[in-house]
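re: that complex we talked abt at group meeting.

here r the seqs, copy pasted straight from the sheet so there may be weird spacing, ignore it
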Amino acid sequence: MISEQLVDLSRLQFAATAMYHFLFVPLTLGMVWILVIMESAYVMTGKPVYKDMTRFWGKLFGINFALGVTTGITLEFQFGTNWAYYSHYVGDIFGAPLAIEGLMAFFLVSSFIGLFFFGWDRLSRKQHLLVTILMAVGTNFSALWILIANGWMQNPVGAEFSYETMRMELVDFWAVMLNPIAQAKFVHTVSAGYATGAMFVLSISSWYLLKGRDVEFAKRSFRIAAAFGFASVCSVIVLGDESGYTVGEAQQTKLAAMEGMWETEPAPAGFTLVAIPDEAGMKNDFAVHIPWVMGIIGTRSLDKEIPGIKDILARNRERVVTGIEAVRLLDQLRKGQTDDATKAAFEAVKADLGFGLLLKKYVVSMDDVTPELIDRATRDTMPRVTPMFWTFRLMVALGFFMLVVFGLSLWHSVKGDFASRRLLLRVALWSLPMPWIASEMGWFVAEYGRQPWTIYGVLPTHLSVSTLTVESLYGSLAGFVGFYTLLLVVEMYLMVKFARQGPGSLGTGRYMNEAVHA
Amino acid sequence: MIFDYPTLKLIWWLLVGVLLVGFAIMDGHDMGVGTLLPFVGKNDEERRVVINTVGPHWDGNQVWFITAGGAIFAAWPLVYATAFSGFYWAMLAVLWALFFRPVGFDYRSKINNPTWRSTWDWGLFIGGAVPPLIFGVAFGNLLQGVPFHFDDNLASYYTGSFWGLLNPFALLVGVVSTAMITFHGAIYLAHRTEGEIQRRSTRAALIFGVLMLAGFTAAGVWIANGNFGYAISSVIDPAALPNPLSKTVVQQSGAWLDNYRNTPATMIVPALAYLGGLLALVLVARGRTLSAFVASSIAIIGVIGTAGVSMFPFVMPSSTLPSASLTVWDSVSSHRTLGIMFWATLIFMPLIIVYTSWAYKVMAGKVTLAYIRENEHSAY
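got the structure back, here u go
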């Protein structure tokens, strides 16, 4: 039996390293398009200030990108090092998008980033712009393939279990690629990245304006960030809503937990604005409802019901019971009893195999299962409601707050008086951390909300881990925490240093705080 | 699908080999440069010259490694799962060593402080020297067999320790690997620099080239005379659905030479290691650095290819339960996935080679002290 401590530590390590990686990815995704916009302006107008903008923001982009690369390799390793059974069980499907990401996207970004930084004097203006665009396209393709892989974990389409190879096998690659969960996630996630890049440029430009430094440079940067940020945050919200809809279709447990919906309400269900969920009593102690809204978001209709937690659990209990039968039959097949009757019986119940595997957390053999354990396994199919409910609301609130910040910034850019609106500039400055907090909350809702599964409905998390010792996990976790803390300190130091110094760090002679290091 | 399952399994053995060799040739020369950095660059400006020979390219080259990892995951999921979790601490050591590269390259010259810069220089040294050493040690262990087994549901259990990996034979292979990568990096450095740095690099190339060939020979003699090798003792059907528990395997001294005995043409692979290595030594000594780089690339094909051909069809033999050994026939993905991944590789690999070549062409020429002084604020 796999110890629970091993599973918890493996999860903690994955969560910590993935969330850490996700501090750098959104900024990369957004900044790269802002660089494309700035450099396009340079190529079209020939004004050196746009080249300086591309190079200065590019410098900050580079500092961030270095850690994105560093922490990304960890994730590519970690499926194998810490989630070996997962890697075996679903590698046939899950490995392909990761490998294609490397071939199609990551090679592109990484090969052109060198030319972006070092090719200014060796490429024509148009060639250099092409390099920047290819870098941007590459980062987005990269996100696409990673989210196709992640989308498959959420909604495992196009694959089937094979008892001969004891794993999931690919049946329809197009279904995996065009998975609606993956597509909605992709646009939602990259848009969140765009908003992050825009907020970064907006906030730092606001700071220059508040200090009255490099005003022309800062004003131009602010305008680009405001326009790009507003478009992006609109896309985040619309696609967030689309994600909500696709989740409602594919993962009822996640939606119900996010919304704290214990009971199935008559359609269209109301939206619970705030509540204090009571996990043990399976009810909300206090709640403020807005009628109809949830039904419309979740089902795009006025007459379809959204199942509440209690109803979902009742149905899942039946699936656990069928799953026990599936595990038993699988054992017989693996032991060589492969007559047609056994195969047919297994085929009939194999859709619920994953639910039977949930019991492996408690027993080795299905003969030892008790009704009480079936209840526990059933209860396990719901993630905890309180963290889901509140992180989701925090994310949404931050999204709408950013909509206001970008909206006002854009409005005053169009009017042309933003540089003297000190309150707006201050709000923009202090909004800097918001997109990061929102992104991490979004990551949490998506991945914590998938529990108790690594592959939703197919493979329980506790079966997915490598058979390592708990001591190894403590050691590696300590190593990651140590390295990552050190790297973050170094990165923040450089980022703050160059952001404070401003475009003078380019050493062009056109700005304040000219570079002194030499 | 145009290829049947056994053919695709074989193609994927070759493609994994291509990706590993591509990694060793491309990322390898960057790592060799990192290893040599503190020794061939005697002061800050010289070190900046050394770093900027690979500055625009190391990032793209590192993707060979990431893609090789992804391709092994996709094509050989059981190998990915068993090797990465079994070699847990070795893998983490590689990973943590690699951490020093992106930040070392990008952050080093952003602050003008001798301690800061020298710290990152040694970071780049670790990022350059540790991965080839550990990969060599890992190959050394694969050649001896690794202590792992599976349960009935194909969960893998590794029963060795990290320190057990560091046995004399594995360390010898680690030395061969590090010498090979440093040799290759030194030749690249000689090609891209001039004056003193070029002279020091050439000398390093001569030392590490000889070390590589001597170590390779020693490892070969050890394999031929020691207790090495596994052989499949049952019938294995290459077309069967992959199941590593359906065959029997015996440990058999000398079995790693069977492929050369049965198919003498395969002897060309170890011959390439010698041919490429000797040619590279002669050429770099004569200052023909670009040709020498091609020759050392051929040597890399020969050295890595020798490990692959000797073990074929084994990929990861088990020393504690030989019948659970992973082979190219029974540790692979489904027919469909292998097919899709074959086409993806066939489409994208040529594109990658084209734009990588273009990037090198754009940045071609010697990196000089004058270049560093002119690009004070933008060069690494």
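couple things i noticed - The radius of gyration of chain A is 25 Å. Chain A touches chain B through 81 residues (CB under 8 Å).
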